[in-house]
């Protein structure tokens, strides 16, 4: 059927508009790029771009392999979104550290809101609201103040030793409880039940939402935000039920402990805590500014636990895995502890400078099996150039942290667990890059709670080694079970298996666990 003159004119105008928009887009791109090529990467397909090239599992290893072919800066286009993977320390520190002003933004995903994690300033866009959160967090967790939390960390670590003594088979449960108890006591002044604590159950569900919900490509709604409006009963919309479960848990994780801490303050007998310290500066008022500050305080308190606990937990699990596989490392650490601490007390934070091999073990745990192998994505604010390549504004940038920490030039034999790589002449070697410079993030987005996390790892690892022998797991016949040092897939990664045998080193060590008194203040 022939088109009417009006329809033909409309079709022609639409075609002309599309042509003009295409020409404008090409000219604009040419002006922005100044003829510079994009970084190398696999050839994209029409419409979907490199969607089929994005690894479905263990992306850190897949991207490392692609870097061998294309170079240490990989570029992808996925459904119109630019994506860049940085594959070695040189480019990571050049862009994310030296040019952090332009690389400190975060890509915004509908998933943050859908799983209830929009409170997390680690995911917030770079700007004034983010700065207010980070400034408040830093006030309570910078290196100059964390020593006031030593007593709490010490008490909780001693309780952890007792749990290992009585029920070593529940190792992973004890680890999670220990770090939850420590940070919840510090932040909210809350003591949690030994087992079945309701708040811990809520936190576990909320953290599940991060591990599963923020895994790239796990949910189509990440790429097609309109799907968020599809009701849960609609065929194929079962994801809505999971998202709601995570969202409800996340909101409860933020609200419940904060309300409990506020109730203690209202009763007039609040235990010392970060929340008590923050709220003591506020006045009761309907002023929107005060209300806004309280919301920031609530967010900061929640992220103090949620933002660092799983990284610390993963690293501690890696420690037990490593000790079960490398008995010579355990023996060397115990010799250092015997020489410095002696048999009559537990090590504490004050021994840290005198235990370089323990510090080296912690660094190697952070390097060997990193908890966030692809880090947290950054976003480019303005067009940039690197070694002649054009990097468009809005590009999402991932640092392949695992590849950085397994660089053979930086860390020879990277697959080996070798704390000695950080030691020279009996001291920590300053010439070897500290894995913490990559494991805790980069530039203005580096984790502000890293000093608290490292202090917690130190006191727990030193004490475990001082009183326990850790070995490989055994079957019913007493034969060694071979454990492969593999990590789980996901944005947060854990050892697949950290089973081991845990036995007190001696009767005297057992007495230290049973009868010791608090030795820090």
Automatic annotation (TrEMBL):
Pathway: Secondary metabolite biosynthesis. Heme binds at residue 447. Gene3D superfamilies: Cytochrome P450. Keywords: Heme, Iron, Membrane, Metal-binding, Monooxygenase, Oxidoreductase, Transmembrane, Transmembrane helix. Its cofactor is heme. Its main location: membrane. InterPro entries: Cyt_P450, Cyt_P450_CS, Cyt_P450_E_grp-I, Cyt_P450_sf, Cytochrome_P450_fung. It is a single-pass membrane protein. Belongs to the cytochrome P450 family. This is CyP450 monooxygenase. It comes from Lentinus tigrinus ALCF2SS1-6.
């Amino acid at each position: 059927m022939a088109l009417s003159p009006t329809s033909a004119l409309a079709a022609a105008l639409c075609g002309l508009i599309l042509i003009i928009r295409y020409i404008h887009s090409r000219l604009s791109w040419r002006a922005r790029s100044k003829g510079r090529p994009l970084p190398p990467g696999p050839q994209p397909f029409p419409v979907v771009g490199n969607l089929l090239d994005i690894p479905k599992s263990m992306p850190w290893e897949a991207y490392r392999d692609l870097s061998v072919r294309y170079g240490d800066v990989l570029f992808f286009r996925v459904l119109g979104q630019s994506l860049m993977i940085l594959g070695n320390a040189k480019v990571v520190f050049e862009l994310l550290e030296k040019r952090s002003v332009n690389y400190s933004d975060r890509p915004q995903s509908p998933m943050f809101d859908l799983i209830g994690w929009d409170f997390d300033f680690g995911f917030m866009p770079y700007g004034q609201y983010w700065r207010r959160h980070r400034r408040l967090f830093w006030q309570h967790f910078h290196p100059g103040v964390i020593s006031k939390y030593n007593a709490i960390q010490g008490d909780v670590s001693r309780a952890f030793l007792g749990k290992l003594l009585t029920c070593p088979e529940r190792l992973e449960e004890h680890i999670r409880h220990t770090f939850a108890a420590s940070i919840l006591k510090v932040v909210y002044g809350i003591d949690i039940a030994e087992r079945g604590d309701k708040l811990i159950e809520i936190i576990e569900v909320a953290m599940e939402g991060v591990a599963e919900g923020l895994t790239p490509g796990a949910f189509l709604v990440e790429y097609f935000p309109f799907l968020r409006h599809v009701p849960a009963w609609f065929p194929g919309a079962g994801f809505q039920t999971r998202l709601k479960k995570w969202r409800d848990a996340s909101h409860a994780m933020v609200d419940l402990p904060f309300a409990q801490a506020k109730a203690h303050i209202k009763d007039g007998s609040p235990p010392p805590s970060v929340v008590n310290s923050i709220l003591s500066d506020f006045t009761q008022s309907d002023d929107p500014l005060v209300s806004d500050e309280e919301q920031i305080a609530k967010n900061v308190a929640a992220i103090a636990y949620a933002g660092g606990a799983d990284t610390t937990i993963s690293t501690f699990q890696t420690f037990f895995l490593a000790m079960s596989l490398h008995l010579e490392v355990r023996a060397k650490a115990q010799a250092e502890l015997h020489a410095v601490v002696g048999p009559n007390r537990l090590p504490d934070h004050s021994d840290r400078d005198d235990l370089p091999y323990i510090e080296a073990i912690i660094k190697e745990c952070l390097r060997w099996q990193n908890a966030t192998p692809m880090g947290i994505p950054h976003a480019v604010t303005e067009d940039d150039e690197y070694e002649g390549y054009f990097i468009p504004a809005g590009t999402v940038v991932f640092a392949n942290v695992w590849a950085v920490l397994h660089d053979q030039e930086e860390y020879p034999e990277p697959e080996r667990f070798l704390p000695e790589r950080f030691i020279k002449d009996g001291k920590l070697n300053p010439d070897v890059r500290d894995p913490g410079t990559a494991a805790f993030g980069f530039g203005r987005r580096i984790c502000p709670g890293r000093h608290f996390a490292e202090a917690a790892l130190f006191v727990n690892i030193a004490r475990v080694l001082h009183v326990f022998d850790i070995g490989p797991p055994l079957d019913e016949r007493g034969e060694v079970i071979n454990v492969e040092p593999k990590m789980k897939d996901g944005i947060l990664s854990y050892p697949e298996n950290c089973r081991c045998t845990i036995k007190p080193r001696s009767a005297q060590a057992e007495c230290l666990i049973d009868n010791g008194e608090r030795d820090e203040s």
